[in-house]
Amino acid sequence: MKTILNWAFAALILVSAGNVTAQLNPKKLLQKKANEIINKKEQPPVKTSENKEKPEVKDENANAANKPGADKPSNNQVALQTYSKFDFVPGDKVVFFDDFSQGNVGDFPAAWNTNGSGEVVTTNLFPGRWLKFVSRDAIWTDQLLNLPENYTIEFDIIPIKGTEGGMAGYGFRLMQSINAKAFDHGSVPGKAGLYFGCEYFGRPGYRTYINGKEGEGLGLSGTNEEKSYYQKENQLYHIAIWIQKSRVRVYQNENKIFDLPKAFPVSSVKMDRIRFENGAAMVSNVRIAVGAPDMRSKLLTEGKIVSYGIYFDVNKDAVKPESYGSLKEIAAILNENPDVKIRIVGHTDADGADDANLELSKRRSASVKNELVTTFKIDPSRMETDGKGEAQPVAANDSPSNKALNRRVEFIKL
After folding, report:
1. If DSSP codes are grouped into helix, strand and coil, which group holds residue 361?
2. 85 with 259: CB under 8 angstroms?
3. Considering Cα of 10, then 15, then 21, then 23, what sign does the dihedral take?
4. Helix or strand holding residue 379 (H, E)
C-alpha cells in the first residue's frame, strides 16, 4: 500500500513539473498573450456615462467625407437624409441678420437693446461669436422690423447653465410692440405675440396671444412631450419659424414640432420685434427673411434662382442638414423638367483672402451638386459647377446683413 502511495505522489510531482515547464516556455507564453489581445479586440466597446450628453464639437479639419464627390457625410455632420420631412424653405430677401461678428468680444451688440445684460462671447466648442445672456431680463432688436404677411425667422441657440447652476431654459418672443424705444412689460407684452420657449428641463413649448377685446379667446398654448425633442445643456439647436399670414410653423433641427394654422386670425396683428428672455443661452446667426421664393417660376421663366437657404459652416464646404428643404425644391423642379440643365455657382462675402474665397465657393458648389446627386438622385450630367468667390457681390460688405446677402448659391438655367 505504501508503495502505491509513493508511486502516486511521484506521478503528481511529474505532472506539476510539466505544467510549470509549460508556463515558463517563452513560445507558449507569447502565443497565450497574442490570443488574449485578439480576444480583447473582438469584444464590443463599453459605453461610458461621460459619452451620454457630451456637447457636439465642430471638427475644423473636415475629413475626406466632407469633400465634393463623397458619398457619406463626415462624423460631425448629420446626414441630409434624416431631414427627409423637413419642408422649411427660408425667405429669399434678408431683412435682418446678425452673427455678432461686428461687435467686440465682451461688449453688448449694437443692433440690440436690453433691460438687463448680455455680451458677445466665443467658445471652444462652437465656432463663431455668440450673444450670451444669463438673466430673467430681455434682449430685443433695437429697431422695429418691417415684416409682411409671409416671412421666416431662424437662429442657432445653445442652452447653458443659469444662475442656480443648472440649465435654465430660455424664451424667444416674436411680438407686435407698443413701445418702439423701450421694454414692453408683462407676461403677454405688446399688442400681440408668439412665445417659443425651452423649459429648464428641456421641454419645448409655445404660447400665442392677442391683447384687447379682439383677441379674447384666441390665445393658444401647448408643449411637445416627445422626449427626443427635449433640449439639453450645451447642445446646439437650429430653430426655424415660418409665418404665412395666420399660420405659424416651428422647426427644431430636422423636426417640425409645432404647426398652428390659425395662430393669429386677426388682420391687425403685424409683428415688428424679436427678443430673447428669461433664462440662459447663447444665440447666433439670427436671420429674418421675407417672401417665400417661387423657385419653379424663377428658374423656368427668369433662368436663375438665387438661394439663401443652403447653409455651410464658416469656411467649410459641407452642406448643412437644414438646407434640405431648399435642395428638395430644386430637385423637384429638375425632376419635373428632365430636359433642363443647370449651372450651380457659389458666392461668398469679402471676409478673408480672395483666393481662399474663390476656392471655397467652387468647393461649395461642387458639394451642392454632390447632395443633389447622392440624396435626390439627380443625373450629374445635368449639372455644372462654378464659383465666383467675392467677385460678384449684390450688396456692400459692410454689415452682417449685407454679407449674408452676398453668401449665396445661384442655380442658372443652361
Report:
1. helix
2. no
3. negative
4. none
Q: What is the pTM of this model?
A: 0.74
287 neighbors 234 (Cβ within 8 angstroms): no
**What stretches in the chain show pLDDT beneath 50?**
1-30, 32-76
- From the list 327, 362, 324, 357, the residue with the least C-alpha distance to 346 is 362
Residues with Cβ < 8 Å from 331, sequence gap 6 or more?
A: 372, 376, 378
Confirm if 178 and 144 have CB atoms less than 8 A apart. no
Question: Strands 342-347, 93-98: parallel, antiparallel or unpaired by DSSP?
Answer: unpaired
CATH class of segment(s) 295-413: alpha beta
pLDDT given for residue 293 in this prediction: 63
pLDDT of amino acid 301: 86
CATH 3.30.1330.60, the chain: domain bounds = 295-413
Cβ burial, residue 167 (10 Å; 0-12/13-18/19+): buried
Per-residue pLDDT of 192-214, as tens digits, reads: 999 999 999 999 999 999 999 99
**pLDDT, tens digit, 9 for 90 and up, residues 67-93:** 333 334 344 456 676 677 677 888 878
What is the H or E stretch that residue 275 is in?
strand 273-290
Distances (CA, A) of 374 to 270, 350, 371, 377: 42, 31, 5, 6
Mean pLDDT of the chain: 83
Give the C-alpha separation, 258 to 250, whole Å. Answer: 5
CB distance 255 to 237 below 8 Å: no
Distances (CA, A) of 322 to 73, 155, 157, 240, 294: 14, 12, 14, 9, 19
Cell, residue 399: 454689415
Residue 217 phi, psi dihedral angles, 5° rounding: 80, 5
| CATH match for 90-290 among 1.10.340.30, 2.60.120.560, 2.50.20.10, 3.40.109.10 | 2.60.120.560
Q: What pLDDT, on a 0 to 100 scale, did the predictor assign at position 344? A: 97
Strands (E), 130-219: 130-141, 150-159, 170-176, 192-198, 204-210
